Each structure stands twice: as C-alpha cells, then as structure tokens.
Amino acid sequence: MSIVTHDAVHRSRTRFAGRDVIHRWEGNPIVTLEDIPFECNTVFNAAVVKHNGEYLLLIRVEDKRGRSIFALARSDDGYRFVVEPGPVMTPTDEEPFATYEACGIEDPRITLLDDTYYVMYTAYSHYGPRLALAKTDDFQTFERIALISEPVNKDGALFPKKINGRYVRFDRPNVGSTGNIWVSYSDDLVNWGRSEVVMTTRPDHWDCSRIGASAPPIETDRGWLEIYHGVKETAAGPIYRLGVVMLDLENPARVLGRAAIPILTPREYYERVGDIGNVVFSCGAIHDERSGDVKMYYGAADTCICVGTAKLSALIDRCFEQEDSA
Ligand code: BMA
User: Fold this and answer.
1) pLDDT tens digits for 168-220?
2) Is domain 22-325 given the CATH code 1.20.1440.230 in the classification?
3) Quick check: CB of 124 below 6 Å from ligand 1?
C-alpha cells in the first residue's frame, strides 16, 4: 500500500518548481501575518531597497478594516526580516491626497534617484486607483509629492535615471478589464505626459489579459530589464505570473526582446492558496553587481511575501530566447 505523505507531495512540487528560472528560497515565505507585530488582515507584496547596507521591505499590509497600509521590515541578509512595531505609512488626512487614498495605499515601488528615495504607489478610493508619489530619507516619514495620474491607473514604477533630462515612469492605464504597459515622462515629477504604449498583452500567451510593470527597471548593458506581471483570466479566476522584457536604454518604448515564457508561475502551496490564490506579484528586486545575482521579492497569493533569486545574465538571456524554444 502506498501512502502519499504531504512531504512527498511537497518534494515533488519543489522539483517541479525547478522549471522556473527564478529559484525560490527554501525558507519561503519570508513574511507572513504572524510576523506582523500589529493586528491586520493579510500581507500582500513589498517594495525593496538596500539602504545603509540593510535590506528594507516596504510591505503592503491590509488592516483589519480592509484598507491597505505600509509596514517596514529590515534584514541584514535579504532573507530573514524583522517587521517594525507599527505601520510607517497610512492613508493621510491631508488633501488632496485624503480623498483619493480613502480606500488605502497599495503596491509601493521604491526607486533611488539623485540621492532621493521615491515611493510610487497606488492611491485607492471609490473613484478608482490612481498613481501617487512620495519621497523619504529614513523610511519612517514620507513626504507626499503629488497625485500623478487620473484613475484608472496602477503599476507605476519610476526609472532610476533620467532619460534625455526627463524623469521616466511606467504606468498601466486600464481599458475595461485589460491594460498594457505605458511609459510617461516628466520635467518635475508632478506633471507627466508624452505617454506612449510600451507593450501589450499577447493573445496566445500567459500574459493575455492584463500586464503591468512590477519591479522598477534594472539598467543592464543590453538595455532596461523589466520584470513585469501578466494575468491570464481563466474559468477559475485570474492567474498572475511574472515575466521579463528588455527595453532600449534611450527609448524605453522600444522593445528589444520579450521572453515567451514566465520567469515565475504559481506552483508552491503558498502561491496557490491564500486570499487570492494563484498569484505571484513583485514590486521590487535587488541586483547585486558583484555577484550578478538578482533577489526578487514577491507577494504570494495576496497572503505572504517570498524571495527568489536568479543570475541577471539568465534573466537577460530569457528576453532574447527564440519564441519556438518555449
Ligand atoms: C493587483 C494588485 C496586487 C495583487 C493582485 C492580485 O491588482 O492589487 O497587489 O497581488 O492584484 O490580487
């Protein structure tokens, strides 16, 4: 008689997971509800930055009433994090932000640009999601700069460099239930325009329903490497996966190579089961120039945070693989 134990199932899942170019850390998940020292409902995803030698996660947490807020976690090694006792950023009472953050602040992305840490995030209200920008020196206080899009727009990520003297961001205006990745430019971080579509959903792929920028882009010698998320609507609901694309350094609306297959797809139990199952959703990655490793942080099933690694070179290669090798 053969008894299939949970361990055996888990081992086979882990082998299966080797298909993804991102290697999941064996200690995943790294932040769960039990790690948050204050009461809340669930843990979504996190922006990441290396600051004074420490890894910082700015974590989207849903409070007990159901609005998202941000908590901060610190780590020396990028794997073991300690979450600070209280939230560091919550919806403000100050206008004009208060009206548009009434339902919460979501999906932060941190970019270091000209010695300033910027946080681009989604301000959520009953008018719909729109993009907002704040800055911080210490990750304890956040100065709001501006609301920088109209609704419905999400997945804003600021580039770490100006291009031709202008600030650059990705965004994702929605058209009904679909949406594509766009790029917009600004002289002052407040007024944005010259918007252009970067890339669209692909009808016959894993990213056929909606796409959006995930991590702020990483500069490489082949172009801007962007880790993005793609959604496929199915009879059982959406599946969120992560993929990569390479964009021209001078003109990020020009796609140089786009991987046919995802770099990470939900397979593990903690990615399959949670508040929203079958979700891997990244808001940030750290590239270590010395080792060539990328640590990608991602929310799993809108319930916990995980980390996975890959060589930068492997992610770059993926962008240029031939479609028929998929
Ligand atoms: C997106 C964002 C993410 C979330 C995902 C799946 O729109 O809100 O934070 O992980 O949906 O629910």
Assistant:
1) 999 999 999 999 999 999 999 999 999 999 999 999 999 999 999 999 999 99
2) no
3) no
CA-closest candidate to residue 109, choices 277, 226, 265: 226
Q: Taking a C-beta distance cutoff of 8 angstroms, is the pair 55, 291 a contact? A: no
Q: Which residues 6+ apart lie within 8 Å of 83 measured at CB?
A: 31, 35, 36, 37, 59, 71, 72, 73
Please identify, by atom number, the ligand 1 atom nearest to the C-alpha of residue 275. Answer: 12
Distance from Cα 121 to the centre of ligand 1, integer Å = 12
Question: Which tokens go with 202?
Answer: 């692909």
Ligand 1 pocket: which of 62, 107, 124 to mutate (most atoms within 8 A of CB): 107
164 CA distance to ligand 1 middle (Å): 32
pLDDT tens digit sequence for 42-99: 999 999 999 999 999 999 999 999 999 999 999 999 999 999 999 999 999 999 999 9
Q: Where are the chain's structural domains?
A: 22-325
How many whole angstroms from 261 Cα to the centroid of ligand 1?
A: 21
CB of 276 sitting under 6 A from ligand 1? yes
Calpha distance 235→35 (Å, rounded): 34
